[in-house]
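User:
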Amino acid sequence: VQLQASGGGLVQAGGALKLSCVVSGQIANEYPMAWFRQAPGREREFVAGISWAGVSKYYQDSVQDRFTISRDNAKNTGYLQMDSLKPEDTAVYYCAARQAMGVRRKAADYEFWGQGTLVTVSS
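Assistant: Predicted structure:
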């Protein structure tokens, strides 16, 4: 199983970016997906998660109403639309998937990870 994240870049505060995560290989069951981020000197933190059917979505409080997680299972791809970006959103963003059902907020609960894509928001 491989996850390939893309879409990061440099953007001014108030701008937007859309991250993508393509999953290749077979993950058992109807797997949930999530996005995490890690800023320099900080621990990896949960940003958003989505169930297999896309019905259940979860967000970190600081990104609620600014970020939108989605997925297209026919394309084996997950997305994170990030609007109204702030300098404090600057981090490496990772997509993740887990075999068991149910979104979790702990990085240790995810078996599969993408390589990370850097998002830099300038003030």
